[in-house]
Amino acid sequence: MQTLRESTLDPAAALAIHDLPAGEPWLHEVKRGQTLRIVDLEGNQAVDTIFYNAADTAESYSVTDTLQRQGGIYLSTGSVLYSNRGRPMLSIVADTCGRHDTLGGACAAESNTVRYALQKKFMHSCRDNYLLALARADNGMGKRDLVPNVNFFMNVPVTEAGGLSFEDGLSAPGKYVELRAEMDLLVLVSNCPQLNNPCNAYNPTPVRFVTWDAA
User: Fold this and answer.
1) What is the pLDDT of residue 114?
2) Mapping DSSP to helix (H, G, I), strand (E, B) and coil, where does residue 136 land?
3) How far apart are the first and last CA of the chain?
4) Which residues form the DUF1989 domain (predicted)?
């Protein structure tokens, strides 16, 4: 199945463009019908993302609902991201990368310690980023609201033994994925600061978010 698809949308007509520096968090609202493009500006940068229903944040992206419905573990053009209530949250309408991870999760102090070394515990992580963004928003959300995320542009193949392998990315400078919101959403992003595996080519870089209004 061919999943690579170029977008017809013009950034010059976009509602908003936001560049997110390397290693930083972001919390943003996207309205139903709007399209959000995530651009890997320099290549091989993982963008760890969680989606919530803006009107009721107890409804959030569900990896299990999403993968069961599509019958596969990777996301690309044609994939629909479902909530924990079985409702469509977003549809991927264009993708020039071709595959996005759903299983690798977000790095945290605990996983950095287990995977790498005890002294890595206090390195900045995606989990820290999520909590920082929610604390700054002061919207009542916190640690209990964090759920398994999507890793856009990240390459985590499943091994023959059933494990996960963090590999060099499939992306390149300027590659993007474009998603259409099927409900009003809060988008919680960590532009991954990980330095211990190839998900960011050992060098975290900026990414860009471009938003268009519904046609």
Assistant:
1) 58
2) helix
3) 27
4) 20-186
